[in-house]
C-alpha cells in the first residue's frame, strides 16, 4: 500500500480530472483498498461517470469503493448555523440578533463556502485510515484547489493570533470579576472553540504535507501547459508532494486527412515541450478514447494504464 493515503487530482477545467480521479479510485478499490472518491468540483459529474446517485454522504458504488459529492452551499449554510449556536453560548441576548444578521449576510460572502468546504475536507480526511484506506479527491479547477490547499497554513496563523487576543481578553475579564468579588465558571467557550479549530488546522496541514500526493492532469495544448507550470510552482512552495503529471486525451498516431495530420503535428510539439519543461516529474500519457467515458469498463481500461505507469 502506498505510504501516502490521500490523492488529489487537479488541473485546468475540462482536462478530464473527474475521469482520471474515478479511474484511480477504481484501481485502488480493485486492489482491495477501501477507497473513498470525493468530488469537491461544483460541476459534480462524478455521479454521472459512475452511473450512481450521489449525495453529501458517502455512498457505496462498488466493491471497496464509496463516493461522495460535497455540496459547498449546503455545507456553508450548516457552517453558519453552527457559528450561531456557538454565539448563543458566548454573546449577550441583547447583541445576539445583530450577530445573527451579520452571519446571515456572511452566508453569501466570498470565502464562506471555501471555509465550509475546508471544514468538510478536514472531517473527511479524519476518516482515513480508520474507515477508508485511501481517499481520492476530484477537485475544482486549479486556482480554487490551490487556495484550498494553502488554507491550513493561513488559517492556523490567523487562529493563533485570535487565541492570543482572546487569552488577553479572558485574563482581563477574570481580573475584573475578581475585583468585583464575582466567581466565574473558568470555561471560555470562545477560547475553547478557537483552540479546537487551531488543532484541526494544524492536523490538516500535517496530513497534507506528510500523507497527500497531488496528481496534475493536463492535455497537450498551450493553456493547460501554462496552468500546470503555475500550479507546480505553487505546490513546490507549499510543500505538497507531486505524484505525476497525467497527460490526458493524447490522440493516437493515425494519419488520416490534413486536419488530423495538423492536430498530430501540433500535439507532438506540445508533448515534447511537456517532457522538457516538466522533466523533474513523472509523466504519464493517457490516450484519447474513441468515445465519451461513460462506462465502468472504460474507467477500468484507464485504471489499467495508470497501474502500468506505476501509480499507486
TrEMBL record:
CDD domains: ArsA. Residues 5-306 form the ArsA/GET3 Anion-transporting ATPase-like domain. SUPFAM superfamilies: P-loop containing nucleoside triphosphate hydrolases. One of its GO terms (molecular function) is ATP hydrolysis activity. InterPro entries: ArsA/GET3_ATPase-like, ATPase_ArsA/GET3, P-loop_NTPase. Belongs to the arsA ATPase family. This is Arsenic-transporting ATPase. The lineage of its organism: Bacteria, Bacillati, Actinomycetota, Rubrobacteria, Rubrobacterales.
Amino acid at each position: 500500500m502506498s505510504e501516502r493515503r490521500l490523492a488529489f487530482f487537479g488541473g485546468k477545467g475540462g482536462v478530464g480530472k473527474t475521469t482520471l480521479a474515478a479511474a484511480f479510485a477504481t484501481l485502488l478499490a480493485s486492489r482491495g483498498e477501501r477507497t473513498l472518491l470525493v468530488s469537491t468540483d461544483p460541476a459534480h459529474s462524478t455521479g454521472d461517470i459512475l452511473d450512481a446517485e450521489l449525495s453529501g454522504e458517502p455512498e457505496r458504488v462498488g466493491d471497496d469503493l464509496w463516493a461522495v459529492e460535497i455540496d459547498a452551499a449546503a455545507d456553508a449554510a450548516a457552517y453558519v448555523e453552527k457559528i450561531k449556536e456557538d454565539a448563543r453560548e458566548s454573546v449577550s441576548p441583547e447583541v445576539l440578533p445583530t450577530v445573527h444578521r451579520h452571519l446571515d449576510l456572511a452566508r453569501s460572502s466570498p470565502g464562506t463556502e471555501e471555509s465550509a468546504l475546508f471544514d468538510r475536507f478536514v472531517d473527511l480526511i479524519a476518516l482515513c485510515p480508520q474507515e477508508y484506506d485511501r481517499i481520492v479527491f476530484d477537485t475544482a479547477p486549479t486556482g480554487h484547489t490551490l487556495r484550498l490547499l494553502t488554507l491550513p497554513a493561513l488559517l492556523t496563523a490567523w487562529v493563533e493570533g485570535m487565541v492570543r487576543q482572546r487569552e488577553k481578553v479572558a485574563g482581563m475579564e477574570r481580573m475584573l470579576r475578581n475585583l468585583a468579588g464575582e466567581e466565574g465558571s473558568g470555561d471560555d467557550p470562545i477560547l475553547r472553540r478557537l483552540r479546537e479549530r487551531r488543532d484541526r488546522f494544524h492536523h490538516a496541514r500535517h496530513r497534507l504535507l506528510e500523507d497527500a500526493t497531488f496528481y496534475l492532469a493536463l492535455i497537450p495544448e498551450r493553456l493547460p501547459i501554462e496552468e500546470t507550470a503555475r500550479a507546480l510552482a505553487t505546490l513546490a512552495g507549499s510543500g505538497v508532494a507531486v505524484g505525476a503529471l497525467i497527460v490526458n486525451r493524447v490522440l493516437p498516431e493515425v494519419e488520416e486527412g490534413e486536419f488530423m495530420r495538423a492536430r498530430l503535428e501540433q500535439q507532438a510539439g506540445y508533448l515534447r515541450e511537456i517532457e522538457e519543461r516538466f522533466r523533474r516529474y513523472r509523466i504519464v500519457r493517457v490516450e484519447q478514447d474513441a468515445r465519451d467515458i461513460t462506462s465502468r469498463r472504460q474507467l477500468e481500461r484507464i485504471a489499467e494504464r495508470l497501474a502500468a505507469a506505476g501509480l499507486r
